[in-house]
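Human: Here is a favour to ask of a fellow structure person. Comparing notes only helps if you start from a blank page. I am asking you to supply a protein in sequence and structure-token form. Write it directly below this note and I will take it from there.

Assistant:
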Amino acid sequence: MQVVRTARGMQVQLDQGPAVCYQRPAVDVMLSSIARESPCGSLGILLTGMGSDGARGLLAMRQAGSRTIAQDENSCVVFGMPREAIRAGAVETTLPLDGIAHAILSGQTGH
């Protein structure tokens, strides 16, 4: 699953590409496509989950100029995906689950 720019604007495109981190669709693929197609003004958020899927894609978003948030350890059921993104340097802000929506709505998403 990727976000692509078309004549009609941004759209989600599904394909049968290879599995990434044993997943298809993979979070890394989706977030990396956002980093390529629309980095400025985008916000990447990685929530609870097992494994490392999402860490590279979130890092690509951050390096391209997007804001990035990860769910904090205390509010995660499984801290794997957020932990790997934090370790990779992909996370700008770490928040509890119940604080993420407030940060988005109030514009307090980093920097």
